[in-house]
Structures are given as structure tokens and as C-alpha cells.
Amino acid sequence: MAPRSLPDSRFHIDFVVVFGFFKFFMTKHTMDIFEKHTLVKVCSPMVRYSRLPFRLLVREYGCDLAFTPMLMADSFIKSDNYRKVESVTCENNPLVVQFAANTPEIFAEATELAYQDCIGVDLNCGCPQSWASHEGIGACMMNKPDLISDILRQTRNRISDSTFGVSCKIRIFLDMARTVDLARQLEATGISFLTVHGRTKAERNEPVHLDYIKAIVDAVDIPVIANGDIDSLEKAHAVQEVTGAKGVMSARSILENPALFTGQVKTPVDCINKWCEINTRLDTHFTMFHRHLIHMCAPLLNKFERRIFNNLTDKKAVLDFISDKFNNHSNLEEEESVVVS
After folding, report:
1. Distance CA 40, CA 44 (A)
2. How far apart are CA 141 and CA 104, in angstroms?
3. Distance, CA of 166 to CA of 192 (rounded, Å)
4. pLDDT for 294-334, tens place per residue?
5. Under a CB-based contact definition with an 8 Å cutoff, are residues 271 and 261 in contact?
6. Which residue would you say has higher pLDDT here, 45 or 6?
7. Is 125 an annotated catalytic residue?
8. How far apart are CA 319 and CA 150, in angstroms?
9. Looking at the DSSP assignment, which residues form a beta bridge with residue 65?
């Protein structure tokens, strides 16, 4: 499957050659990622959050693999603008594009469109939100294991590139045996790896069932990524120790601290500055730029400062606030005391 055709010029021909080599190398390298890293550190798919700017940021701080937000496969097929907004490009490989779909045809067609810009696609069978259930996607699909298997198998067979990844993200059933049976059934479709959020569809803040993840790891031969409450590098290693998972995936905690996988316990100032640089370079929308900073800066600001910062309405005001608060050397010692308290 070749990259899209480009205008006939020496520059573009050279680009195609270079891009083709890059895609081949990156694909081979990334699907071997579980062999190359003792612990694969993954940024979770997060609606509205795990878009290109944030993926570029976490790669600077120890993230080995990033997912797009959950994308609607049918919209991805139909809308050029949808694909543009989600910025699925080879700029930020290794990347897995996660789709929500409930038919083999839609998932496979979306996969073919995404193929040249990522190293794999993932079927979301873990989203617990009611709107997703109403649409027949996400975690409700776990009650239709044969449908999930059909979607994954047909897509795996449709992509001739065996190094291209097809994977799935699931939750657990209360019945451990049923959970393990599902994992084995999905493995039999030829998927590359499986991500398991160690909670049921109904659970939100309850403790993660690490014993269920371990049972899956013991039952299958493909790599398993453990998801749920990975809030520090220390926790990531502890979860791997308990479950035997080849990777760990963080969501909410990596929003608050994009440098989590480097062992930082809070977002360092250089990470905040890097976020500002990335967004200035990409000229991102203010809402995305500000929303991420609200998460990153919350533990670093007192209640009064948070109120001011969260209500800023333009990029210049945000950059001025960041500069005054974090880049004024006279405030650094005070800032450290605020963080530790």
C-alpha cells in the first residue's frame, strides 16, 4: 500500500522515497517496541486531549507510544476536515490511531486511510460513557465478542503489511474467567497487542483489578498493556511487577504531569515552557492550549492563582502569566515550596 500521490517534482519524488523508508523503518521498529523496552510507557487515548500537540509534548518526556483520541471511524472516512482536525500525521510516530466502530467494513476502511501515517490502529471496546453505548460502540461491544473478533480479523487480513499493528482496548467483566476467555478470543484474531483497563464498565474510581490483568497476561502470548491509575513512574514499575504486563498506559495523571514517565512527581517548568513552544509553533486553538495548562498548573498554583489563571481568555494573557509565575527567577525558591506543601 503506497503513500498518497504527490505533485510530480524532484522534491516531492525525493520526499516519497524518504517517507517510504521512514514509514518502513518506523513500523518495523515500533511493532518491536515491546522487545526493545523493558517497560513500554504509553499515553492513553483521551477525547479532546491526546491530540498532536500533547503527543509531541509527552514524547519529550519518556513516552514510548502515543494514541490518538478515540476517533469515530465513519466520520474519519467521510470527512477530510475531521482527519485534518485530528492531525493524524507521520510527524509524531510511533502513533496508534484508535477508532470507534461496530462493523468490520467501517473499521477496515478507516484503517486503510490511516495506514500511511501511523504504526497501528486500535479498536475501542473500553469507553464506558452512555452516549457510546447508545451508539453501539465502546465498552458495550464486550458483550458481542464474536463481532469484535470479526472486526479485528477482517481488518488484520485486509492489511497486507504484517508489521502494521492491529490491537484492541478492553475493560474487564466481574467474572474473571469470562474476561480471560475474551482476551484469548481476541488474541486468536491475530492482533498485535491488547490493552486492558482493569475496571468494569460500571466502575470509575474503584481500585484497579490488577489480578485480572495478571490473569490475562498469563493466558495470552501477545503483549498486554495495563491501564488504570498509573500516576507515577514508581507506580508503573510496581504494576508491571504485579501483573507482568509489557507496558503501562496513563491517562488522567499524564494530563496533570506530562513528564510523569521521566520520574518527575510534578510538571517541571521546562515542560510548561515546552508546551507553550509547541502550541506557538503549531498555532493551536486557544481552548486546547489553555485547557492542558489548567491541568498541568493546578498543583503548582494556590487557590487564588488558579481562579485567575483558569479564567484567562487569550493566549497572550496566559503566556504572560506563565512567564511571571514560573520564569521569574526570584519566584523559583518560593515556587518549589508551594509544590511540596
Report:
1. 12
2. 13
3. 6
4. 999 999 999 999 999 999 999 999 999 999 999 874 444 44
5. no
6. 45
7. no
8. 49
9. 42
Q: Give residue-wise pLDDT tens across range 208-263.
A: 999 999 999 999 999 999 999 999 999 999 999 999 999 999 999 999 999 999 99
CB 322 within 8 A of CB 293: yes
Cell triple for residue 36?
526493545
Say how far apart CA 138 and CA 132 lie, in whole Å. Answer: 6
Residue 331 cell numbers, joined: 519566584
Catalytic residue among 118, 127, 140, 276: 127
Residue 56 φ/ψ, nearest 5 degrees: -65, -35
pLDDT > 70? residue 148: yes
**Rounded to the nearest 10 degrees, how much is the dihedral formed by the CA atoms of 163, 122, 183, 190?**
-30
Q: How many CB atoms are located within 10 Å of the residue 231 CB?
A: 16
Residue range 10-262, CATH number: 3.20.20.70
Continuous segment of H or E residues that includes residue 31: helix 10-31
Grid cell locating 80 = 477530510
Residue type present at position 236: A
Rounded to whole angstroms, the Cα distance separating 84 from 76 reads: 9
The owner of cell 506563565 is: 322
Residue type at 19 in one-letter notation: F
Entry pTM? 0.88
The beta strand positions in the chain, using DSSP E, are 40-43, 65-67, 71-72, 95-100, 120-125, 165-170, 194-197, 224-227, 247-250
Where do the domains of the chain lie?
10-262, 269-340
